[in-house]
Amino acid sequence: MKTEREKDRIKERRKKGARKYGQSKLKEARKGVWSCGLAVVIFLVIAGMLLLAYLSRGKTAAYIGGLGMSAMIFSWIGFFMALRGFKEPDRNHVTCRIGVVCHIIFIAGLTGIFFRGLL
């Protein structure tokens, strides 16, 4: 049977996990989380634009163009938000990296679609 002291040691060891002695677990950067959330919303908007364009057989060009431009603006906002997330001290910056990559892909893709539409 384990004593109270042994139980406390086991509990403390589990709580510590793989962290080094004296270091607390890092939280995600808030702006990085917001950036990733915005990337998901932009992805859903782009998917909705494609579905709307397919179902209307190309007759809603003005609506889709407006949604595309607003998606590009929000993608720039999310990109800069992810960059600001890197400045948060003592935080985990994985979501910031994911946000930067996703928003660069969205910006490049939407810019390509925009310039292809001009030609």
Report on this structure.
By secondary structure, the protein is mainly α. The chain has helices spanning 4-16, 30-55, 61-85, 94-118, and strands at residues 27-28, 91-92. Helix 2 (30-55) packs antiparallel against helix 3, helix 2 (30-55) packs parallel to helix 4 and helix 3 packs antiparallel against helix 4. The radius of gyration is 22 Å and the shape is elongated.
Low-confidence stretches: none
Rg, alpha carbons: 22 Å
Number of helices: 4
Q: How is the main sheet built?
A: 2 strands, parallel
| Helix/strand order | HEHHEH
Mean pLDDT across all residues, rounded? 86
Give the fraction of residues assigned to helices.
Answer: over 70%
β content, as a range? under 5%
Distance between the termini: 79 Å
Principal-axis shape: elongated
Strand order of the largest sheet: 1-2
Secondary structure class reads: mainly alpha
Number of strands: 2
Q: How many domains make up the coordinates?
A: 1
Task: Give the arrangement of secondary structure elements.
Layout: H1 4-16, E1 27-28, H2 30-55, H3 61-85, E2 91-92, H4 94-118
Parallel strand pairs: 1-2
Helix pairs in contact: 2-3, 2-4, 3-4
Brief descriptors of the model:
119 residues; 4 helices; 75% helix; elongated
Question: How would you briefly describe this protein structure?
Answer:
The chain has about 120 residues and is mostly helical. It contains 4 helices and 2 strands; from the N terminus they run αβααβα.
